[in-house]
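step 4 of 6: structure.
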Amino acid sequence: MALLVTEEITKTYRLGDIALNALNHVSLSMGRGEFIAIMGPSGSGKSTFMNILGCLDKPTSGRYLLEGVDVAHMDRDELASIRNKKIGFVFQGFNLLSRTSALENVELPLLYDGLPAKERAERSAAALATVGLAGRENHHPNQLSGGQQQRVAIARALVNKAPIILADEPTGNLDTKTSFEIMDLFVKLNEESNITIILVTHEKEIAEFSRRRIFFRDGVIVSDESSGPQRKDSVQNEKKI
Amino acid sequence: MFFFSVYSAASVVKNVFWFRLSRVREDMINIPSTIRISFRALRVNKMRSALTMLGIIIGVGAVITMLAVGTGAQQRIGEQLASVGSNLIMIVPGSTTAGGVRMGAGTHSTLSMGDAEAIQKECPAVLYVAPTLSGVAQIIYGNQNWATSVTGTTTNMLFVRDWSLIGGRPFTNEEIKSAAKVCLLGQTVVDNLFGGIDPLGHVIRIKNVPFTVIGVLDIKGQDPRGQDQDDIIYVPVTTAQKKLFGTAFPGMVRVIMIEAKSTEDLPAAERQITELLRQRHRIGLQQDDDFTVRNLTSMMQAAEQSTRVMAILLGAIASVSLLVGGIGIMNIMLVSVTERTREIGIRMAIGAKTWDIRLQFIIEALILSLIGGFAGLIAGVSASKIISVLAGWSTVVSPFSVLLAFGFSGFVGIFFGFYPAYKASLLDPIEALRYE
């Protein structure tokens, strides 16, 4: 069974009398353990698509199945719970809480999952170690470099054992060397922990780390190409273009 | 159809309630962390937090001070009330008419020892009866003299006034019957005539009649009207009638003091006394009483009531400042929600539910108001102490007012924190994440 399936997803924004289709009947299937880059110019609908995948937004019509469950029409709190348990977010601007230590930033998803303090601290320290930040638990974001901050964000995405990481231009604020280090980390997480990684990027070099690239333009998918060896358990594309 | 809809409405209510309960229980684990997060947020803007609290500090401080002053005044009045005696009824004779000019209450002498004895015997709601005949007289001891009120009465007076002796003994029945020349002195009289000497057994002269001091009354202080109750001498009522003041007819008394069995018995006692005296004085149906029954206790309770109303009024004014303080908290929390839109977006993206966000801001408002309430408590207690020292009023900070202040500031925090928290919880996570 595919991990993520969108069926004929449409998202319409109304600006006065004009209806704007940000997404136009997008159907897509993504399997467990895939590493996907979503590309396209601004206004192509890729951000809207990512917001829907991340359960931050609801489609105007169509179905979105996450692990076989239709989440398109759940209420706010149910979506919050899905985001908490199934999806880890990594943003371009890191989006860490300032004045809050690295460890406490990583603990946040566990806090909202209602775990006791001791378990939160243990799991968060382990997640920080996974991204190579052992020993920096008590540093605050302003004491860390951009690459380190992004690692804290990745640790936060990992800590609740979510099967999916959604990364929105995760290297947009980083220099080339640091960008490649972050991408290596994503590749490692994908290969070693079988985490599905979906990232939005402008840069071709960054997209090359992925094994499947989907291009958006004007709210539709214009190309969906795979390269390199696909993992055995990942589902082949249902829709080849 | 109707029953069905009632049933479904009830089940919805039950489900929502159960849902809330289970949510809250789940959140319990988070509360210590949420409190920590809130403290951190408040520490970041120390100056702003302090200024926000100021409204609550002033409000709670004012409420505590007002209540302390009010309770103090009430307690003092209560003590004075108790010093006069409880459940008191006073009977004074009516007025005389001399050539068409009425002379005022007490000028007509109509009450007698017989009346007093009859009241004691025949009015079941009456506990003690003490007839009195008093006047002002010059008293001499050695080379000292003093003018004071001399009251002829019976031993019952000590029960009616709830007055004990600090030395000596009360009158005996024999002394009252035989009009013995013995007296009990109030503390003010002792101080003025005897200085440091124990007056017991000494002889003083009242209107040049020698009296032996057989007892000294305990100190009572001022009555509710501010008169010194200790400036008094008690002598047997018969002695006052025959040897000091003289009477228009044998056994005449001026005033009869009465203690009713209980506060509830006061109206019954008044009624019984009035009926009995009208009968004894042979007053016809159309005629007015030739005496007046005064219920002293209810008069004084009215005075106590008015101070209580005053305290409530002052408390109400003070609570307006608490309200203003609460609005200050709401204002700052709204600013805080706007400033932290992005933080709220991050928390929502990561899985914070509606009530997680709400609880965070409500707890912040609650911490602000409770810390403010505690500081206000300290301010109020200090202000009460300063007032009692400077103005000489007695102030009492009761546990009730402390509880009230905390309860009220907690309520203000939750009430005025809820709207900002509600607003925060309704933010769209995507918009919030984009907020710069």
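step 5 of 6: annotate
 - Residues 1-7, 12-19 of chain B have pLDDT under 50 and may be disordered.
 - The interface with chain A takes residues 26-27, 29-30, 32-33, 40, 44, 342-343, 345-354, 356, 429-430, 433 of chain B (CB under 8 Å).
step 6 of 6: archive
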